[in-house]
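Quick note —
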Amino acid sequence: MIFLIITNFICLSSTYSNNDLTIMLEKSNQRQEDSLLAFSEDEISFNAVKEIIMNLPSLSVNLGKGEDNIFTNWDYSLFSGAPQLPVKNYRILLPPNIIQSSISIDIIEEEIVHLANNFDFSLSPFEIALLGDGVVVSNDNYENDLFSEDDMWPKQIIRSVKLNQLREAKILEFSFYPLQYDSETNTIHKHDNVKISIKWKTTQKTSLDPLTWGFLKEFQESLDNFDEISYMYEPKLAILPDTSYIVITTNDIVGNSSNLDDFIRYKQALGFDAKIITEDDFGVVEGKARALNIRSWLQSHYINDNIEYVLLIGDPNPDDELSPTDPYGDIPMLMCWPRSGYDTYNCSPTDYFYSDLTGNWNTDGDDFYGEHMQDTGVDFYPEVYVGRIPVYDEDYVTLDEILDNTINHHINAGAEKSNILEPIAISNYYNEEGDGTRARTDGLDLPEEVYTNILSSLGMTDTVLYEQAGIDPVDPSAFHYSLALDNSNFISFR
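Predicted structure written out below.
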């Protein structure tokens, strides 16, 4: 059970009324888990210290000896080489005007039980990827200090603390480990009745971005206290402004596309403030510098211009820092380096760089962005929603076809709007490598899960394509089997 109390140190009595507390306590008792109490912010003492007191849940299962343990309703830690201990991850919504440097999180009460049994926990494996030319192993999140003398793992039971941002919403993430494991003695420390304090200060309130509310509602299910804190983000405007739909492209594409203007008019007819942005706006530099400029332009405009959607139209080929002669596109993805330091499969391009506009993708300040365990400022919460239509080799004809199909689909489409296409492929067959270690892997169960849990309640239908070729095809009696998965059937449903 989580019990959350948020107080104002300076004027607690004026913050709550008895009626408010009664309502909130009754609300918390209705929850079986993760109960929270909200607060009303003191408008006068905006620079006062605010505090959340959280009672974190105790591990309620009996720990077995000499065998793996199963912890219901808990996640498991996934640090390579570390024991798979139970963990709960929290996302706490904080006020929009919080001062980041003032945030502190401390344990103020706990009971530690030392258990001397010979415990055995499975170790988390390394991250791997199965590719055509072999297995790629990543071990850069390996807990090197796990087996150091006189050390418990994890060293702290509250870890991975990070403040993230969703437009102007502030979200504090952290992980709670109720167990610490000593690999030398196979003993554990069990932390019960843990109470933590989260403190912060705020600046004086200013006007709030009205689009933040809509973004927050999209993420509300993942937040532990949305219902209690969300009122701070509700728009105060009676009529919300039109949101902007920005197309980022080049002057060449604007001059050679026959349908781009029609596409913009179509988006405007839907109520968007739609406009085209080119190098006239973000600069004529090329390669990686252009990617940085495009993001910088978005950072400067997404709040004031109420930008919600961004469509990138252009060649996405990224600029590779390790290959100076490598060609790059006119609207490039950013090349990131999640496996920096490895000789192979060390880089990966992404457009998410243009969506997370408040994160720091180059925390260590070198030439390589998005390095795992080094560039820790990426928060993966979007400030704008980003899509792309790639344009290769000045193929404006194909671009115009895509734009025309998009317009026609939304204007003229009928029943197909309520139907989804599910191409269900076989990833690999049993014993494919001949070593007896790999089971058959396919998506056979996915269509029924999607239909039962999503489509049926929305009144939608599905068209399911299963594998019918190969040595062991899917039986046609499979759930909602429609057609064989092949190129012609897939293309016919585009």
